[in-house]
Amino acid sequence: MEFVPTTALALLAVLVLLAKPAHRGLWAFMVLTPFGAAAAFNLPVVGGASVGVMDVGVLAVFAAVVLSRDGFARFAGSMRPGRPGFCLALLGVFAIFSALAFPQLFAGQTEVFAIARNENQSRLTLVPLQLTTGNLTQLFRFSLNVIVFLAFDAAFRFRPEPKYIVTAIFAATVVHVTLGVVDVTSVLAGFGHLLDSVRTANYSMLAGIRLGGLVRMVGGFPEASSFGYYSLGLFGFWLQYWIATRDRPALLLTLLSAAVLVLSTSSGTFVAAGVFLIVGGVITMLRGLQVNVSRTAMALGTGAGLVVLSAILMLFAGYQLFDPVTQFLDQVLFDKAASFSAQERASWNTHGLQNFRETWGMGAGLGSARASNWIIANLGSFGLIGTGLYIIFLAAVFKLPAGTQDLRRNACINGLKSACLAMLMSAMLTAATPDLGVFFFALAGLASGLSRGGEIESRA
């Protein structure tokens, strides 16, 4: 076991999480989430695998919930039939079976992409399907997703107080923006290795890269796409929360999360943000048809639409008139489809569908297939059964009611669901595996617990 500078961060968070009830210690867990490239420790004997600070944080949250009064019963209650946790538990069982059984059941019947390492370099190569360490590591990651969802669902089902969630996401946003600003300013000042002390995981780090004259912001993450994915989740939460509450701090946090999202210069994130705004606008309009909409809400919606339209017109004018803007947009968006990276990802999708067909619709197993689209990644890994369970779980999360009399609780629930929707839009375009990430499942678990807790409180 190899200890790194961020080991102290993980240890401090674990101590806070174990010392407080899960709902009060939520901020300590959320503060870890912007450190996507930070390891709690590395394991040289297992090929240099890294255990992230968030991984340790999930286990600490689980311990805090289970060791509390009636904690195990509450944790098990999160898997009650009819709740999102039940669908996720079924998916978790299927994930175990698929990761361990399918690679052996369909061994040699199809080829999958595997990471080949040679002289400290890694590349993808096609190999016959077989059980590998990749299946075990992906299973471990997915198990953490299930655990964190059920733990937060249990914790907030009996403590449906939104202030703890809003405070925790506020802390995460401040840390995330700070890391992003330090990242860019340190590169511009000639100290590009300043954040190496928090990028301690054994990942390929794509930091300090310039694109169109701009430094790509990656903050505490290994690359711009994962930084943008996280930023999009924060933006989705704060935008919905601000629309519902009209709090000035929420507006400021919406603008900050939007700013770091743009500075990530991730083309997939840009497209996902546009799709999210369109889908979110349609959902808001449909809600407005069912209830009386206040003049203030109409003004906010109209204003947001005018801002988006003005931004599109400004980008179009800049693209036509200014060469730096033309070069930047060409690199980030318009020439992206013809790039080698886009062609490589298209081949992943083609091969993911081939894995689906050659395994008779069952999938090659979690951790075997790779794609550049969340649906195709699921079909290639989980097949029809697992993909169906996954979609049912997500539908249950997005259908969570927020009809209590507490305005801020409703705003928080809708904000959490909005964040999940935004991240799902991004995964639809770029996800290589079925894993939507610990942060996604933590937000979904918080929404589930808060919604169920509000229902129980209303009946009481």
Concise structural overview:
With 460 residues, the chain is mainly alpha-helical. It has 17 helices and seven strands.
Strands, helices and their partners?
Elements: E1 2-3, H1 7-19, H2 26-32, E2 39-43, E3 49-52, H3 53-66, H4 71-77, H5 84-105, E4 111-118, E5 121-128, H6 133-157, H7 162-188, E6 210-211, E7 214-215, H8 224-245, H9 248-263, H10 267-290, H11 295-321, H12 323-334, H13 340-358, H14 374-381, H15 383-398, H16 407-430, H17 438-459
Antiparallel strand pairs: 1-2, 2-3, 4-5, 6-7
Structure summary, number of beta strands: 7
The helical percent reads 55-70%
Average pLDDT taken over every residue:
84
Count of individual helical segments? 17
Tell the overall outline: globular
Listing every helix as H and every strand as E from the N terminus to the C terminus, the arrangement reads EHHEEHHHEEHHEEHHHHHHHHHH
Cα-to-Cα separation, first versus last residue: 50 Å
Secondary-structure-derived class: mainly alpha
Count of folded domains: 1
- Taking pLDDT < 50 over at least 5 consecutive residues as the criterion, the unreliable ranges are 318-322
User: Major sheet, described briefly?
Assistant: 3 strands, antiparallel
